[in-house]
Amino acid sequence: MLNGLWFGFFLVAAIAGLSRWLLGDDPAVFAxxxxxxxxxxxxxxxxxxxxxxxxxxxxxxxxxxDKAGLVNLLARVLGPLFARLMPEVPRGHPALGLIxxxxxxxxxxxxxxxxxxxxxxxxxxxxxxxxxxxATNAQILFLVLNASSLTxxxxxxxxxxxxxxxxxxxxxxxxxxxxxxASTLVGLLSVAVMQRLRVWDPVVLAYLLPxxxxxxxxxxxxxxxxxxxxTALSSLLGNLTLFGIIMLFLLLGxxxxxxxxxxxxxxxxxxxxxxxxxxxxxxxxLCAVGVLRASGALEFGLDGIRWLIxxxxxxxxxxxxxxxxxxxxxxxxxxxxxxIETMQNQGVDSFPALVAATIQGxxxxxxxxxxxxxxxxxxxxxxxxxxxALLAELAGVVAAISVCYWFFA
Length: 409
Description:
Blueprint: H1 2-22, H2 29-67, H3 70-77, H4 79-85, H5 94-107, H6 111-126, H7 137-147, H8 155-163, H9 173-195, H10 202-223, H11 227-255, H12 260-276, H13 279-295, H14 297-311, H15 322-327, H16 332-346, H17 351-362, H18 366-376, H19 385-408
Helix pairs in contact: 1-13, 2-8, 2-11, 2-12, 2-13, 3-5, 5-6, 6-18, 7-9, 7-18, 7-19, 9-17, 9-19, 13-16, 16-17, 17-19
């Protein structure tokens, strides 16, 4: 899938470049395309410098949380909920702890760190699978919730914005929180309908209703604020939550007699190993996107969408953020490349860049997750996983665009 997508970027760029040369009498297009290759290769290394620090920091913090028993505590707290949503998984099964840790990594926006944990969780669920080639209900629910990208603290989005010079990297905190809540809710409800889960069970409602009421009240409060106040509140809560989680992990670890420094270093080593493996992928995708932009193909496609939106009488400012949305279901690295490219060309705090950042933080690489997670355990029949995951993806994109008009328009 990624082979075809990456080759397609270069093929479309080549066709667009030839068209501009032969039909538009613009031979300089090839110089621009070659220059974009070197520019994007350099940018990839610059992005990686900050990514190294971000992943090592948060993998270290997650290890402290794990050693302090926070993951096991969450697994016990969520046990009654999992018993209703995943009734075929026995209470206390190792898969539940791994699922909780995976959700924690996703909630912190550490998608690269969440993947290896998620693969372990999928293998643990596979041990309970009576039909090894067919996805179980628990595996589908786990995958769809992963694909819905529940992100409570999108630290990697903050990192990309900081790297591109944003004066306030956390400005998109609340928009991402609201958009990712919408995608996760749609994903959960769609699976519940397909699997006939008892979402109206008193235990399930006891978990979900307080969160829903809190989110509803929070949105009502936000509705009373001006755009300037919304931006300021998003920045405050983003930074406060970020530092608060760090202090929670450290204090809990220290009180539990965890050697916080040593465990942080061990976790940071894991983060470093994860980060260093990403550079080739980042170079590959950023260069492909750069060539696509330099050839004029990307602008041509966006102009067509923009014309349709104008024909319908809608505002077109979000159109320049759509490349991130269009490639996100297929490749996280391609979506990151599109996001970075949008921030560079439109401005890091431009409306399209803010929409693209919100989309990136509230959606997931649906087809990639399907291929990796199910492929790792030999699942061939995925049943309703694709439909539910794509529905959650669509909900996240629509919610991200809508929320950004509310906050930043």
